[in-house]
Amino acid sequence: MSDEPSESASAVSQLLPGEEFAVLDVTAGWAWGYCALDHRVGYVAAIHLTDPVEPSHVVIEASAPIQSGCDPLSHALAHLPMGSRLCGKAQGARLQTEAGSVPLSYLRPIGDHESDPVDVARRLLGAPYLPGGRTHQGMDCAGLVQLSLQLCGIDAPRDAREQRGLGRPVKRGEPPKRGDLVFCADHVAMMVDDCMVIHVGWAARKVAVEPLAAVSPRACAMPVELRRLDRGCISDL
Asked: Is the dihedral of CA 161, 4, 127, 124 positive or negative?
């Protein structure tokens, strides 16, 4: 999704395969509307849109292969990024879809949520920084948090500043816990334990696990804020 109807326009977010896009207008081959999942508004090339289908499964690994047959060693026709939604019928250890066959080990049924967003985020370690990105091929800080929470059944906005409304503030002097969200200016991370975070690192320029101090760049005078989510959605590992 881009902020203007042009191939050279800046990306505001990324629609994942199977996500619903509500079209408000179509002009000169560009559809203007919003992602039904998080209401992010933008432009999408109309040729990339298809009729919506009720999904049955969601990809939970960094990427999942679509194969032509049931042989697990068969060539992958394409790969679907984490968060992609598919419609198909489970047959043995595979999901049969119109596009091909996908191993069920890469998927979860819709509604069968993960329990730990930090575990989800770890599967994307090494994904490079990409403004507006939401896949293992490119990710921004808010995209990492949003995707990790969504797979745990927690609705999350697309922007870091809007994600500040999630959960409750962690009181001063209260130790951080796994799954706490950490904010500094327009950056967001998640606590892995009481001293490490997982985020799209300022210096690393990729998804990485780093000390809590890495959330705040040296030139940033903004305070660090922690917010705690419902522990019923996160395992205390």
From this structure: positive
Nearest to 110 by CA among 65, 166, 150, 67: 150
Please tell me the pTM assigned to this model.
Answer: 0.92
pLDDT at 235 over 50: no
* Cβ–Cβ under 8 Å, residues 152 and 146: no
Q: How many residues does the chain have?
A: 237
Measured CA to CA in angstroms, residue 56 lies from 82, 105, 122, 172 at distances of: 15, 14, 24, 43
3-class secondary structure, 142: helix
Task: Give the span between the Cα atoms of 237 and 73, in whole angstroms.
Answer: 35
Check whether 192 has a pLDDT greater than 90.
yes
Check: CB of residue 228 under 8 Å from CB of residue 236.
Answer: no
Q: Is the pLDDT of residue 153 over 90?
A: yes
Query: Is residue 164 a contact partner of residue 157, using CB atoms and an 8 Å limit?
Result: no
- Please tell me the distance from the alpha carbon of residue 155 to that of residue 40, in angstroms, as a whole number: 13
